[in-house]
Records
---
Amino acid sequence: MSTSTTPQVIRTERGLSITGTRITLYDIMDYLTANWPIDEIRAILPALSDEQFRVALDYIETHRPEVEAEYQQVLIQAEENRRYWEERNRERLARIESKPPSPEVLALRARLGEQKTRRRAREAQEHGA
């Protein structure tokens, strides 16, 4: 997305973001902390112009301690969210699995079983002939 104004880093509800995009500095930090080469990071973020990318990198470098501290908080929150949803899904899946299958599911299973039996019989006939 091109813009006529100079790109900046601003604080949005998503955190430190690059103006005119939905890309946060934390997106870039993921790659930097994984030691990706700058040119590969640039290639994976084609939505950013070269100037937007440069502004983001300059901001990270200039404000490294603050960005790093905030990034660590983002990672902690993301891990808490992951654990919450994993547990919630585990409970939901357990409830679903404890319910008996519906008549429709039982009918589908029966049809699949019949098809498998016919296929095996056909294969046995072909190999035995």
---
Amino acid sequence: VKAQEKKDFWIRNKSKYANSYMKPDIVVYKNKSEKLVLDTKWKNIGNDNPSIDYLRQLYVYLEYFNGNTGALVFPNSSLEKENIMGQYFNTTYPQEISHKKCCLIKIPVQKKITDWQESIQKQIFSIMEKSIEI
């Protein structure tokens, strides 16, 4: 697990240093070829879909970190844990579904931080196992 792993993204002409970089919140490596890119959000989206900006941001992270599965992690006001899996369309053939997946993880906020962390960990491992099957 790597927190806020950073990769250079854009450099201004005639500059020595990158001006912008990609930095997802968490990258979980299961093996060399399989990884889960996570982006945490602090907005409760309820039953709505995530914003198009969130979906685009995660797609770019998947492209840049060479991943196939990503997750947007949201707090949830209900006591139910919820995972919703979706897939991006293929950029070359827009009528086809690509192999890139985006999961919405909605996790109830808990008073005890260690319980919340354990719940998040279980959700992430569940997503990684299921992403292979989908």
---
Amino acid sequence: QIVHAGRNTKKSVIGQQPMGPSGKRRDPMNFQKPRELKEEEIFEIIRSFGKAAKRAVKAGADGIQLHGAHGYLINQFLSPFLNLRKDTWGGSDENRFRFLKETVIETRKSMPEGMPLLVKMNTNDYTPKIGIVPELAVTYAKWLAELGIDGLEVSCGNGEFSPFNIFRGEVPVNELLLSLPNWKKPLGKLMLKGMAGKFDLGGAYNVEAARMIKPVMGNIPLFVVGGLRKVSQMEDVLSKGYADCISMSRPFIKQPFIVKQFKERKAGEVSCISCNKCVAAVLMDMPVHCYQKGFPSSK
């Protein structure tokens, strides 16, 4: 999975001011504004996606997925909320799609024939003002199908403006506060407590959007992620033709062999409760691990 964070990072991490399609929309948590990318920098980044794919191929990857969801750079170009450009890279749906289109074309050049190229894309950004919504996602999906990608995975949410729409479930307030510097904790506590209880898992939350997108995909496989926790749920989605494949993430952290258990009928659902303490741990540079029972005392 190849991704460029764009504006969705911090200067302390990358050593320079984050960049994005536009220089507006202050990050609500880090209070920073990105620098608008120059056109020559846009072309450089597109070429860099191709170079990254070439390195992945050399390293033995079986396929490539371009991460165009969750508020990262590709998503930023696709989003009417974050892409406020008036040149050929923004201002219309076609122009906002151009960055992803050129990245798909460039990445494909670096891959051997037969290796699958997939895209991950938002169906809803859940940003303060309208970004990508399901109807626009259908348009983008149709254009991706015309480009001949080998699979599309649909997700939702934005890491800066709506993180708990990405990984719904509990909001682990106390654990998340540990990752903040002391000066941010009072505001962080206020914001996080305001989110608590508003993002319960509530079932498979991207399936309805997948159902809208599936008809424009032709024979290209459609993957859906988010809240699918029971085999019966998954079978229902597949049997009704809403999607072709099921994606999971957090359940594998707790149960790496859960698919094998499904196949052998030793389990009918995952044991992950979406407590999201694993997310808080990653923000503290702790190992990817299930922390459902709490963080180690040393932390």
---
Amino acid sequence: MGFYSMTKVKTIVFDAVRDFYPGYFALVMATGIVSISANLLDMAIFAALLFYINISAYCFLVLLTAVRLFRYFPRVWMDLTDHQSGPGFFTIIAGTCVLGSQFAILTGNIHVGFYFWITGACLWLIIMYSFFAAVIIRPVKPSIEKGLHGGWLVTVVSTQSLSVLGILSAGFISTNERVMLFFALAFYLLGCAMYLALIALILYRLLFFTLTPETFTPPYWVNMGTIAITTLAGSLLIQKAPAGPFLTEILPFLRGFTFFFWVAASWWIPLLVILEFWRHIWKRFPILYDPEYWNIVFPLGMYSAATFELERATSYAFLGTASRGMLYLVLTAWLIVFIGLLRDLWGEF
């Protein structure tokens, strides 16, 4: 009986590693940004608790990914070069940078934050160019209807996460702070360009192709999360302007562009809520735990943090109230999805 149980557990574990969802690092992204938002709004206990949970989750997911990479490399490559699953790998970059941002903000340890930035930048180079080169040159490609979804925007989130962490850890190299801010600005602008290109295609897919409850998946919430993190990066760059003369020179542009993206993020929220109502209430699509639901928690948490930093950058005091109200919703959402994760893991065994 004991041998059978161990064999069963081993089978479950290796099957889970083989079929591991590439976008599972959205758990780290979501937990990290909720922790940061709680810290910004003086909820230190929640922030610290989520920080330690996130460290554990990140280490566990890195271990699973490493085992999968060495044991099932052909499957990993197949997933990375696939239009549907490939964008999920960018959550590894974003999760790494969000955890690094937690170290920089919650502990003040910008040294660790800088090393996470280096790691994230290396991962960005590998994953970004492997994915885009592979999907461009592959001989058989899916239609926009089949191959494009909101998860593609995680490519932008990963880019903007490098901008955010670069700003937070710029002080690590005091003599070259301007260099770090230069790269942060570069990643910020690249992320803006990528978003404007991809969102046009995603809106085209939503507006002119049939949408079903099965195809309207949680990653479409990244439509909002992408520009929320862009707002966050822009707000931090505005606050860092005195440290970089080139930032001062383009300050009016940064302020206008950042506010533009915050307004766009705010526009997305009611529409996405309506579509969720249509999916689950009108069409009665069952609500069961899925790792993709972390892609709802992350955008909401990012919107809370971005709104708070925008208030700091613009002195619009009422934005702080909006940020705090959103945080209570985000904490509830995180808890619901986390309970779903625990129940799902319990059910596996």
